[in-house]
Design brief:
about 900 residues; alpha/beta; tt1808, chain A; Rossmann fold; 7-stranded mixed sheet; 37 helices; 25 strands
Length: about 900
């Protein structure tokens, strides 16, 4: 008999709950009485399936001998049960629920099962005692829905979403982490250099101090800066004290990749990791990280990009991938075991573990390190999100989750090195801000947001507010674009070697706007530098350009559009300006940038920090000189400033006016209100579109000092603070009169000029993918609920109710029914197709296809939609 046949036979036997064990008889009696046994039986069914899917065997078969033992004859006394708590079982004596064996038949894992309604961690101490008695190193705690894997030799139980198979856990069993050895490893400035060139200290070029700089440049040796060493040492101290999660808050340009390489070497060299996973959220960062690890560590460790080595990634020490690659088709669950990586690093952590990406990060057990440039000060005294779908999609939730995931909520990260630290230590540069506003952008900067006052055809004054996508369409006529580009070219920094326009990134409103700006800059460049450019002075680098990713690399490598013709011996890019929208922000390394131009309003503090961070890196221009004699002449020529052109008062907004809990309301610059009438000789508006020339009305310049920008130090203010400060509301909440509490908030806290909180704002501020109610917001503010549940969590709650109410007998199809249940609630297209009976449309549906529907038992294809319509409020799941 094959394994599958024997497994099916066993499941049938288990589902009938046979009478041959007294404990099973008692559970069956409880089940028939409709008590907690139903939850326990459901949990057992799920656990059985998880074990089978992971490759564990209940019976001998062709694949090998049975390696699951049910309730072996290992007991603890009734006195011990009383000491540990009575709820772990219903019997007088306690037994191990499942004992999983290694290939030699020795105990390997104790699996302690709890009913669905119980927290599996409640069995932690019982399972620990069982494991020690059996000499088993690992424990799995599960209630069928939530599972923890616990290596008794390392750390605390970690959440897992599937059980490790015999092979994976055997490999992990051979892994023997030693935090003491990790902590005692000496990490000097040359920690990476010793891998790049073990004998570098004996080289003549190194010994001769006068030749040392050129030797370092020629050999590309990388020496750790003091703060980078301190970052590594902070991890060593934390690991020694028992921590398994670490968070680095390091400003853009401070060398997070080099620091990561040092930490990777530390863990691999000391045997505290066998394989490292490096997660990024963009393809260009994937290539950049892999290239860096190869350059820094290739003599000792191998690095691969997962998508390029899908079949051989297990041979590598470092696997670099985007989270999107692992999320696609649930790849991380299908092709990886939770124990495949002992150390997971998340670059730009608040992005690469946000939303669904969190599942990838949490899937793997072991050490975790998060890297972020987003200052913790944004989160101080803050519990709710200010993210909006456009343009701050999920930002606040991601930032909050980052610190919470790494155990840093309300405390310091493992290591912090801010932009201000970098400026003080002379590693980074603060911007020289050029605040330039045209007549139109000045009018747009009103206290009410981007609002234009005009007169309609009946002579009535009207106001119209615009979202980001409206700006380019309604306001950025050629006249305004011309003056923005002219201001940039007139006042932008020049390359100190050739005198040509310095390398520049322009952030535009939209892809269409980016195309217009690039065209105007090219036309102006042709007038200023005749014959030097062939429409390649400025290039559009946006997602709709097929080669955009390559163009970002070429610009950093000074080869976009070829090499400059100003000086044949100076290797700099012919293209001087890249015009983008959202690219070339996070993690983009191009240190010779001299100008940044914000030709759009910035809504997000994180985006603002990342954008200005493109210019903060220092640069030695001699690196691009190919003539040795001239290279020596300009050896001391360094980048000491960069210019940040701000046409929308973004810097003033973030520096002086920003309330982190409010949507964007840019400050009024104090200019005369712009009026629009047909008689105006100065300007004519037709449907809020201008065709007349525009001009700069104000221009101020300021070098940011060592104190930095307020965006680098300010923190969030809270709606909860205001709610809790209202004594009348607090009294109502104490009485739990929720209807009155909702009225109080609606009447006294919402829509007020000073704060202008609204339900829509707070719904978006929660950072969830579903709607919230005013009551939920109040309950969260006053601590009646710890957090808002996500859409998936609510659906899971509803599905558990469905299982208890409907009690489907098709236990082997629960997962398929759950997927149908989920898709019907989440996807309006799936719901419409099912309700109308147009099932063939599912053949092209990427969310829930015909194959998925066929996996659902026929009876439930009708009953599940009926149940949802009767018992589930779909309104809660709308965005």
């Amino acid at each position: 008999m094959h394994c599958l046949e024997k497994t099916t036979a066993f499941r049938e036997e288990f589902d009938r709950l046979p009478q041959k064990r007294a404990q099973r008889r008692r559970r069956l009696a409880i089940l028939r009485e409709g008590s907690v046994g139903a939850k326990e039986a459901t949990a057992r069914i799920k656990i059985n399936r998880l074990l089978e899917e992971a490759g564990w065997r209940f019976f001998d078969c062709d694949a090998g001998p049975a390696n699951i033992v049910l309730e072996p004859n290992t007991k603890i006394t009734e006195v011990q049960i009383n000491a540990l708590g009575q709820d772990f079982e219903t019997t007088k004596n306690g037994f191990i629920d499942f004992l999983l064996l290694d290939t030699d038949g020795r105990p390997l894992i104790v699996l302690e099962a709890k009913s669905e309604g119980k927290n599996p961690l409640a069995a932690k101490e019982q399972a620990r005692r069982y494991a020690r008695e059996q000499n088993a190193r690992f424990v799995i705690l599960s209630n069928g829905n939530i599972h923890y894997l616990w290596d008794l030799k390392q750390g605390n139980p970690s959440v897992i979403t599937k059980f490790p198979g015999p092979g994976a856990i055997k490999d992990h069993h051979a892994f023997q982490p030693d935090a003491e050895r990790l902590a005692s490893e000496i990490v000097g400035r040359d920690y990476i250099a010793l891998t790049q060139m073990p004998g570098y200290a004996n080289e003549a070029g190194w010994k001769n101090e006068t030749e040392r700089p050129s030797f370092i440049e020629k050999t590309k040796l990388r020496l750790l800066r003091e703060y980078q060493r301190k970052a590594v040492q902070a991890v060593q101290r934390a690991a020694k004290s028992g921590a398994v999660r670490f968070l680095f808050e390091m400003a853009t340009g401070t060398g997070k990749t080099l620091t990561s390489a040092a930490i990777i070497k530390l863990f691999l060299k000391t045997g505290n990791a066998r394989r490292v996973l490096f997660l990024v959220d963009r393809i260009e960062l994937e290539v950049q990280a892999d290239k860096a690890f190869k350059a820094l560590l290739k003599n000792d460790f191998t690095s691969v990009i997962y998508k390029e080595q899908r079949d051989d990634w297990r041979k590598a020490d470092i696997v670099v991938t985007t989270v999107q690659s692992l999320l696609f088709n649930d790849k991380f669950r299908r092709f990886f075991a939770p124990t495949d990586f002992d150390f997971v690093i998340s670059d730009e952590a608040h992005r690469s573990i946000g939303g669904n990406a969190r599942a990838v990060f949490e899937y793997f057990v072991g050490y975790k390190l998060g890297l972020t440039a987003t200052p913790k000060d944004y989160l101080k005294q803050s519990r709710s999100s200010t993210a909006t779908r456009d343009p701050r999609d999920t930002e606040r939730r991601m930032m909050l989750d980052t610190y919470r995931i790494f155990g840093c909520e309300g405390s310091e990260p493992t290591f912090r090195y801010s932009l201000l630290d970098g400026v003080r230590d002379k590693f980074l540069i603060n911007p020289y801000v050029v605040d330039a506003r045209t007549e139109i952008t000045t009018q747009l900067l009103s206290d009410e947001g981007f609002v234009v006052e005009a007169t309609d055809e009946n002579g009535n004054e009207v106001k119209e507010a615009f979202a980001g996508r409206d700006f380019e369409k309604k306001f950025f006529a050629d006249a305004t674009n011309d003056v923005l580009c002219e201001t940039l070219l007139t006042h932008g920094l020049r390359d100190p070697v050739t005198g040509e326009f310095g390398k520049t990134i322009v952030f535009a409103v939209s892809q269409n706007h980016a195309a217009k700006i690039a065209q105007i800059l090219n036309e102006m460049a042709d007038d200023i530098w005749p014959g030097k450019y062939q429409s390649d002075f400025a290039m559009q680098v946006t997602s709709e350009v097929p080669t955009a990713q390559t163009m970002t690399v070429q610009f950093a490598n000074n080869n976009l559009g070829g090499r400059s013709t100003f000086d044949e011996s100076y290797a700099t890019s012919k293209a001087r300006v890249c015009v983008t929208v959202g690219m070339m922000t996070t993690g983009y390394d191009c240190p010779d940038i001299l100008n940044l131009a914000m030709m759009r309003p910035i809504f997000s503090p994180s985006d603002f920090v990342q954008m200005k961070g493109r210019g903060t890196r220092k640069h030695r221009f001699a690196e691009e000189m190919r003539d040795p004699a001239r290279k020596a002449e300009i050896a001391s020529l360094e980048k000491t400033e960069f210019r940040l052109f701000d046409f929308f008062a973004n810097c003033e907004f973030f520096e002086e006016k920003f309330d982190y809990n409010e949507e964007l309301k840019l400050p009024k610059p104090g200019a005369q209100p712009f009026t629009s009438t047909v008689e105006s000789s100065r300007r004519t508006f037709k449907g809020f579109e201008t065709f007349q020339p525009d001009s700069i009305t104000s221009q101020n310049e300021q070098q940011i000092g060592l104190e930095g920008m307020r965006v680098d130090r300010e923190l969030f203010q809270k709606f909860e603070d205001m709610a809790r400060a209202d004594p009348a509301l607090a009294a109502i909440v104490e009485q739990q009169n929720w209807e009155a509490a909702v009225r109080r908030v609606m009447d006294h806290l919402f829509d007020k000029p000073d704060e202008f909180f609204t339900l829509d704002k707070l719904r978006r501020a929660a950072g969830l993918d579903r709607r919230l109610t005013v009551r939920e917001i109040i309950e969260k503010a006053f601590g009646h609920i710890p957090r808002f549940k996500s859409k998936d969590e609510l659906i899971d709650d509803e599905f558990q109710k469905f299982l208890l109410d409907q009690k489907p007998e098709e236990a082997d199809r629960i997962a398929q029914m759950r997927y149908f249940f989920d898709a019907y609630i989440k996807d309006a297209g799936v719901r419409k197709t099912i309700d109308e009976g147009h099932f063939t449309q599912l053949n092209v549906n990427p969310i829930f296809g015909m194959k998925d529907l066929k996996e659902v038992p026929p009876e439930w294809r009708k009953r599940i939609p009926e149940y949802i319509k009767d018992y589930v409020s779909l309104n809660r799941f709308l965005p």
